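Hey,
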Amino acid sequence: MTYKSVVMYLEEMRERGFDEEFEGIVTNPKKKHSNRSAFLDEMKTFESCDRTAL
């Protein structure tokens, strides 16, 4: 599984209403995955999203 496919999966989770699970994964990825710069690059997709609308 590529990092890009992980991000696509996360987007699908958010769209299907798994808000709590989604937030648990994307809220603090820098601490948990600090040694995976490619993953962090893909996760930037969520930095600009409005989570209050979720």
